[in-house]
Amino acid sequence: MTTTLHGRLPHIASKLLTTAAAMIVLCLMAAPGHAQSVAVMVNGEVITNFDIDQRAKLTKLSTQKVPTRKEVIEDLINEKVKIKEGKKFGIDPSASDIDASFASMSSRMRTTPDALAKSLEAQGIRADTLKARIKADMVWSSLVRGRYKDSLLVGEKEVNAAVQVKGDDKSDVASFEYQMRPIVLIVPRGAGAGVTESRKKEAEALRGRVQTCEDAENVFKTMQNATIRATVSKTSADLPQPLRELLDKTPVGSLTAPEVTRQGVEMVALCSRKPTTVDTPKKREVREKMYAEKYEAKSKSYLNDIRKSAMIEYR
Questions:
Q1: Topology annotation, domain 176-275
Q2: Fewer CB atoms inside 10 Å of the end CB: C or N, the chain?
Q3: So what's the architecture of 38-147 in CATH?
Q4: 243: buried, middle or exposed (CB in 10 Å: 19+, 13-18, 0-12)?
Q5: Which helix (H) or strand (E) holds 101?
Q6: How does pLDDT run across 110-138, given as a tens digit for each residue?
Q7: CA-to-CA distance for 305 and 165, rounded, in angstroms?
Q8: Is 58 within 8 Å of 130 (Cβ atoms)?
């Protein structure tokens, strides 16, 4: 009997320790001041004080303004409501979709997903906090654009009328369609400034040999550590103003001045430049502004409607 009890003691002690540990965790989670305590329930889903703290830090980082607790809570409630509405219509981005959007964002910031995550961590913000906001934005954009696409359309008559009202603007005197071939003289990553400068001088020298896009094809197609890409067509409305001005000053058939980028030294061979009335920078600007205004109004109205039926409980 003694031997049997002695043999069971380690097992009993282990179970007691496990039970005690579980109780400690439960007590910590239930403690009023603990970061994981529930602040709001939205349709049965929780928003914790930790969520609020994380979002406040993210908002401060992205806007350089300190939001009020109420503002942060309202943003988080809206996101819960949006995501639930999205699921009703089968809009539920996967983890890989969100990771891809996170990676795209880091690329626009000229960094990597890991580096962006570490940068956020240095500010006391989890990457998942930003990903949660990304998910809500993806869902809501798909919902509004998908359900109300017809009412969001901006007609040409609307655009032309708005442009005429601003008829004193001189930025729309001419609009062109450009046929271009991008060229890159590759500079390996980690190469010193001397290598980049050498390739830039090489690019400057090659500009004198190119008078047509056929010349550019012949020069760069067989050149080592260089590439000439397929023809790209863009209108003035598609391009930022500095690039439009550069292309307007470049003779047709010539190369633009070399520019150092992450890929190496880049130039553009201008194959043609023809006047067009399809679109203009001013029309594009007016159309995008009118669309944004319609989208914002519809988004606000839609959100107000679905919030009315949401079950929101403040703790």
A1: Chitinase A; domain 3 (3.10.50)
A2: N
A3: Orthogonal Bundle (1.10)
A4: middle
A5: helix 95-108
A6: 999 999 999 999 999 999 999 999 999 99
A7: 35
A8: yes
